[in-house]
Structure formats: C-alpha cells, structure tokens
Write a structure and sequence with these properties.
Layout: H1 4-12, E1 18-24, E2 27-36, E3 57-65, H2 74-83, E4 90-96, H3 100-108, E5 112-117, E6 126-132
Parallel strand pairs: 3-4
Antiparallel strand pairs: 1-2, 2-3, 4-6, 5-6
C-alpha cells in the first residue's frame, strides 16, 4: 500500500500505458493497468530457456476490484479489455506465491508460471506468469 503511488507514477508515465476502470453508475468498482515492458528488461526474460521470436511484452501491473464486485467475472472482463488490441506478443504479471487460488485464476486465463521473483527485499515472493497474446 505504501508503494502504490510510486507504482502509479512509474507505470502511468510510460509510453503505451493503458488503464481500464469499471463503474456501476458513477461509482468506480475496479481497475487494471499496465504498460509495455522495456525491451531487454522484461520480467519474464530470465525465466525462459528459449527467447520467443517476438519478445514484445505488456506488463500487467495491477488488477483490483472492490469486495462487493468480486467473484462475478468482472476481473476477467477488465483484464480482457486491458489486453484487447494490444500489439505486444506476450503479457506478464506477478502474483504472490502465497495466493495459489489467485495463481490458478490467472492460469484459467491462459497464463503459465515461468518462475519466481522477489521484486523488493521486503516484498513477498511472486510467481512470474506469462501469457501468449499473439503468435510469437
């Protein structure tokens, strides 16, 4: 929570940044955002034995729903809207390894775990999840 403003500034200032917000009437109920990975520095790069033909990668940074709107398929709809028409060949996200049900949810969205990463010394260990968006 303390780093959230930094993440918003970090991702929001990147070229290709995209954000999708869901509303019920005028009330925001969820959002997701991300941006293209920096070529050569994508999160998934160190976990793949073989480099994909097309290495362009969209990094999904956050996906959040208010509790009342969870478990209704809205997260998947937001995620699909975020990635719709993206020119990148791959999408990547991370999920806390202590949240296996969430990891399984992303796997049901065609992500696969390719490795584990601890982004900050005081953060939990995260599964690095990769999804093919286009033929690579």
């Amino acid at each position: 929570m303390q780093r959230f403003p930094w993440f918003v500034d970090h991702w929001g200032g990147r070229e290709g940044f995209a954000c999708v917000v869901a509303y019920e009437d005028s009330e925001p109920v969820g959002f997701t955002y991300g941006a293209p990975g920096e070529p050569g520095r994508e999160w998934r790069r160190e976990y793949l034995d073989e480099e994909p033909a097309d290495t362009s990668t969209f990094s999904v940074s956050e996906l959040m729903l208010r509790p009342k709107w969870r478990k209704q398929g809205l997260g998947e709809q937001l995620h699909a809207a975020l990635l719709a028409d993206r020119p990148e060949a791959l999408a990547v996200l991370t999920v806390d390894t202590k949240r296996p049900r969430l990891q399984a949810l992303y796997e049901s969205w065609e992500y696969r775990k390719v490795g584990e990463h601890q982004p900050f010394p005081d953060s939990p260990l995260h599964a690095v999840m990769l999804k093919v968006l286009a033929a690579s």
